[in-house]
Amino acid sequence: MNSDTYHAFMMDHAGGALSSDMALAAELHILLSEQGLSVSDVWDAARCVLCGSDTESGDADRIFIPDALELAHSEFSTVPWKRGLTGVHYAKRGRGKGKLMRLDPGQSAPAHSHSALEATVVLKGQFEDGHGIYSRGDLVLGRPGIRHRPAAHGEEMCICFVAQEPLPFWRFS
Q: How far is it, in rounded angstroms, from Cα 147 to Cα 54?
């Protein structure tokens, strides 16, 4: 993953500039990974210094923590999965267009790219995309135009939370 993209994403999260589903992806990453927690602490501290606020006031902006806790501790067997055209199973989650993605062992989605930033957080199992192998809590940021091929890695089912940055309104005019 591109380090600049990752730090810009985490900085935007600390500043409250992410859409609801992207903020939920960031909270999942922070909740489930040491790296996420460490980087979040750094950007929260930077925000406090630059904005002249204390650390406590930043926590009030983290309204997606309950949603992240619920997803992190979900019993995925009760999720109402819907099979997509490619065979990959999805279920709506989040406040926007966020979704859970389920890849059974050995299953992959077709290679593709996106027109907007995509954030994927592994909730169960392992995930690979042609650029790396990721485990529970890892955040994968797919930049626009970069091709990837999501696949379950290993013998365990892989479940991820997937969010996409909303397209700007001017793209529709």
A: 41
Identify the burial level of 158 via C-beta atoms within 10 angstroms of its C-beta, where 0-12 means exposed, 13-18 middle and 19 or more buried.
buried
Cα angle: 98, vertex 149, 12; to 5 degrees:
45
Domain regions of the chain by residue span: 3-72, 76-172
pTM (whole model) above 0.70: yes
Name every residue whose Cβ is closer than 8 Å to that of residue 30 and which is 6 or more positions away in sequence: 36, 37, 40, 68
Each residue of 12-68: pLDDT tens digit? 998 888 999 999 999 999 999 999 998 888 888 888 877 766 544 445 457 888 899
pLDDT (tens digit per residue) in 89-125: 999 987 788 999 999 999 999 999 988 999 999 999 9
Per-residue pLDDT of 127-141, as tens digits, reads 999 899 999 999 999
Q: Is 92 helix (H, G, I), strand (E, B) or coil?
A: strand
**Domain formed by 76-172, architecture:** Sandwich (2.60)
At what angle are helices 20-32 and 34-51 packed, to 10 degrees?
Answer: 120
Among 101, 107, 92, 113, residue whose Cα is nearest residue 161: 101
71 in Cβ contact with 65 (< 8 Å): no
